[in-house]
Every structure is written in structure tokens, then in C-alpha cells.
Specification:
The chain has 23 helices and no strands. By secondary structure, it is mostly helical.
């Protein structure tokens, strides 16, 4: 019997994500209030470089989620052999990339190289994520929650007390990853009792070209910070973009509602839950986008008043994150119905024709187009406009190149699933989001006092956030029957768990 419950796992993931947002924002306020803009830009560049070091992490995790969901016991092999082999290779890739970037910029190369300590646990975390995603997706939520909570005391120690700068942020992230991996290992231990099987590794190597091909898109999209740093010769713009993404990325947490759909589709069976799952996705993605729009300025001010100028960047990046989050969900839907890897007789030609190849191809075209346009614009404008304007144009390019590919992926989903959206409900969620957060915006503009003391400002800000969130939940509860049923199900689940 399947242990994957789509709505239950999705809501657990969402609730854990919201709690994680709280911890994450506290962490980011400490970081942005402590680091200089140059140091924060360096941290943003490190995040981009880690994508290069992680280029091999998909060689295992792409297959483990599919294997575990179908009852294949590859978890222990992935955790031990997979992590050891591919993380070692990833470390070498990262060091080379960090060395090259260090030579092309004025950044302290030792800091870039020190960040390599993050890679082994990131590989382990990803493999454990995939293993547990295939049978109990809610474990990922628990692990992420613990990981986020560990960041706060560790960053307080390393940044505020020991004044370690970017190195302190790196160490905080390392401890958080170790804590998350520990939760995964404890809760997922039943999937680690089988023996190590070298045949799995042989299969992963044989099919390694598929995840490597898919990883190209991730690397392309993460190269933007490196391109900006090298062409412009400064990381201040990277700091502005990184701060803007702290606010904009709130929207991406909505896709947690669909976190278990791919695993459920891999199991096979009926697909009747998809229409409701997409409605649930929009139920959360619209208010999160409205929340980010409404509190873009105060959110940046809370991070650090020097980032308040990045409001226009946040606006464009919110829309970009919204469309990209939808495209992520659509990709997971489409991957979940691909069965080419189930057939031992599948040839290279079969894989080329499959969604495991076509979906990454779409993302690669997207990433390539995005980078080409970004490079051209930066080369033309770097000496004629301010750095703030450059980053605004960067955000616009990121948005404009994302929209058509999201629409294309939606059309693919509609074709493959014969899926119709519940347009009236979705439009209802959109209107309520605009109305209630429009009111919250008006109230905050009238009554929110911008106090440099973060301990006074943030509690006042949270009051207006609370007005918007509670208003949205209340109104949708009153006007939408399925929302009332959802609330009742959540309350019933809580009562059942307490008994």
C-alpha cells in the first residue's frame, strides 16, 4: 500500500516551509545586517559557484526517487557509494570554478575555496531527499525545518560573537546541512537496511548522460551572477539581486503543495487528484506573491536599509519566481508519467525521445537564451547606466525569458493529462489576494514607521503581514466550499494525530 498522500504530504511540506520561512528570514536579517554589501555579494557569488560543484549531484538523485517510489531498494547505495564518489568529483569541479572566478574578480579567493566544505553534505542531503521523497515526502519537510532552525544559533555565534564574516555564514550553512542529514538518516533508516549493490552504481554511470544533460540548465541559470560579476567587475549588483530574491523567493514555497505528486505519479494509478492539487497550488501562490509585492519595501528595509533601493528588482523577480515555480511543478508532473527507465530494453534512441530528455532540452534553451540576452545587455550598458539600473534590467530579462517556457510546459501538461483548470476558483483566489493585500498595503503605507532598530521595526511589520494573511484565509474560508473542507481535513488530521 502506498504511503504517499498527496494533499497531506503537500500541506505538511507547506506548513514546514512557512515555519522555515520564519527561521530563514531571521537568519537572513542577521546576515544582511552584519555583512557589508561587498561581503553579501561574495556570498551570492558563492551560491552561484555551488551550482557548478553540484553539477554531478543529479547522477544519483534523479534515479533514486524513481526507484524508491517503485519499490526498488537503492537508498543505501545512493547514500554511501553515490555520495562518496560524486561529491569527491564535485569538489574538484568547484575548486576549478572558484579559482577561475577568483582570478577574474577582486574577491578574496580563499573565501571562495573555503566554501567547498559545503559540497559533501549538500550531495548527501540531495540523495537522502530523493530516497525519502520516493516513499514518505513529509520527512523532507521535517529535515528542512530542523536545518533552518539550526542556522539561527550558529549564525549568531559565528557572525555576531566571533565576527567571522562570510566564513561564519559558510559554517552556519554547514551545521544546518549536517542537522538536516541527521533527521533524514533517522526517519529514513528503514530504507537504509538493504545491502550496497554495485549494480545500481553501474546503472547510474551508464545513464549518467541523462541527468548531466539536465544539469546543464541549472548551471546556465546559476551562471548569471558570475557573468554579472565578471562583466561589471563588482559584486554590489549581485548583493542587490540576492537581497531581492530573499523577498521574491517566498513565492516559491507554494510549490511545496505539489511536492509529492511526482512520486505518486511514478507509482501509477488514478490521477484525479491533479486538478485539486493545482487549485491548491494557486490557493497559496497568489497570496504569497501578493504578500511579497505588498511588503517588498519594508521587507528589504528589514534586511538592511541599504537594500531598500532594490524594490523594482523585487517586483520583477516576484513574477519571475511565480512563473518559474509553476514551470517546476509542470516538469515534475511530466517526469512522473515517463516510464522509459522501467524497460530494460530501452535504447539510447528511446531515452532521446522520452520526457527525461525533452524536458531538460526546454530548460537548456531557456537558460541559453537568458544568458545570451543578459551578456549582450550588460556589455552594451555597463559603462552607460548605474549598477542599480543594470540589476533592474537583469531582473526584467530573467522574467521575460521565463514566461514563454512556462506557458509551453503548461500546454504540455494539458496535452498529456487532458487536464482542465478550475478557473473560477483560481480567479477567486486571485481577486481575494489583490483585495486583501491591497488593503494591507494601504494600511502599511499610512501607519508603518520605518525604524532602524530591527527589534522594533519587525514586530510592527509582522502586524500588517498578519492582517493580510489572516484576512485572506478568513475570506477564502467563507466564500469557497472546498477551502472549508480543506480546513476541516487539517483540523481532523491534527485531532487524529493527538489521540
Amino acid at each position: 500500500m502506498s504511503e504517499i498522500r498527496v494533499t497531506y504530504s503537500g500541506l505538511i511540506a507547506l506548513l514546514a516551509a512557512f515555519a522555515g520561512v520564519g527561521f530563514g528570514l531571521i537568519f537572513m536579517v542577521i546576515v544582511t545586517r552584519t555583512l557589508s554589501i561587498e561581503e553579501y555579494g561574495t556570498w551570492g557569488l558563492i551560491i552561484g559557484l555551488l551550482a557548478y560543484g553540484g553539477i554531478l549531484d543529479s547522477l544519483v538523485h534523479v534515479w533514486v526517487i524513481r526507484e524508491t517510489a517503485r519499490g526498488v531498494k537503492s537508498g543505501k547505495t545512493a547514500t554511501l557509494l553515490g555520495t562518496g564518489i560524486f561529491s569527491t568529483a564535485g569538489v574538484f569541479v568547484y575548486i576549478i570554478a572558484a579559482f577561475i572566478v577568483g582570478l577574474e574578480t577582486q574577491i578574496d579567493q580563499s573565501i571562495l575555496l573555503f566554501a567547498v566544505i559545503l559540497l559533501p553534505t549538500r550531495f548527501l542531503m540531495k540523495n537522502l531527499n530523493s530516497m525519502n521523497q520516493g516513499w514518505k515526502p513529509q520527512i523532507i519537510s521535517y529535515a528542512n525545518l530542523i536545518s533552518e532552525s539550526i542556522k539561527i544559533p550558529s549564525v549568531l555565534i559565528f557572525l555576531l560573537f566571533l565576527d567571522m564574516g562570510v566564513s561564519g555564514v559558510i559554517l552556519s550553512m554547514l551545521l544546518a546541512s549536517i542537522a538536516g542529514c541527521t533527521v533524514h538518516l533517522i526517519l529514513g533508516r528503514t530504507k537504509l537496511k538493504n545491502k550496497i549493490n554495485i549494480e545500481f552504481v553501474k546503472k547510474w554511470f551508464k545513464l549518467s548522460w541523462i541527468p548531466l544533460y539536465g544539469k546543464i540548465a541549472t548551471v546556465l541559470l546559476a551562471t548569471d551572477v558570475i557573468v554579472f560579476s565578471i562583466i561589471v567587475g563588482s559584486v554590489e549588483g549581485v548583493a542587490l539581486m540576492t537581497a531581492a530574491l530573499v523577498i521574491a523567493n517566498l513565492v516559491s514555497f507554494a510549490k511545496a503543495t505539489s511536492s509529492s505528486v511526482e512520486s505518486k505519479l511514478l507509482e501509477g494509478g488514478a490521477r484525479g487528484y491533479l486538478r485539486e492539487n493545482i487549485s491548491l497550488l494557486f490557493y497559496f501562490i497568489f497570496p504569497l506573491a501578493a504578500l511579497s509585492f505588498t511588503f517588498a519595501r519594508p521587507g528589504l528595509f528589514a534586511l538592511n536599509p541599504i537594500y531598500e533601493i532594490a524594490v523594482p528588482i523585487v517586483i520583477f523577480m516576484i513574477l519571475r519566481v511565480l512563473f518559474f515555480s509553476l514551470s517546476d511543478v509542470f516538469v515534475e508532473f511530466l517526469r512522473g508519467i515517463e516510464k522509459v527507465d522501467l524497460k530494460p530494453e530501452s535504447t539510447f534512441k528511446d531515452f532521446i525521445k522520452s520526457k527525461l530528455f525533452s524536458l531538460p532540452t526546454i530548460r537548456i534553451i531557456h537558460g541559453s537564451l537568458y544568458l545570451v540576452i543578459l551578456v549582450i545587455v550588460l556589455l552594451l550598458e555597463r559603462n552607460t547606466v548605474s549598477q542599480l539600473e543594470l540589476v533592474i534590467h537583469w531582473s526584467i530579462i530573467s522574467l521575460v525569458t521565463t514566461i514563454p517556457f512556462t506557458i509551453y510546459l503548461y500546454l504540455m501538461v494539458k496535452k498529456n493529462f487532458n487536464l482542465s483548470l478550475d478557473i473560477s476558483r483560481i480567479f477567486k483566489f486571485l481577486l481575494v489576494s489583490i483585495g486583501i493585500f491591497g488593503l494591507a498595503f494601504f494600511l502599511s503605507e499610512e501607519f508603518l514607521v520605518y525604524n532602524n532598530d530591527v527589534f522594533q521595526f519587525v514586530p510592527n511589520l509582522l502586524l500588517f503581514v498578519g492582517i493580510g494573511v489572516s484576512g485572506y484565509l478568513l475570506i477564502t474560508y467563507l466564500i469557497d466550499f472546498k477551502t472549508r473542507s480543506l480546513f476541516s481535513s487539517i483540523i481532523g488530521e491534527i485531532i487524529k494525530r493527538k489521540k
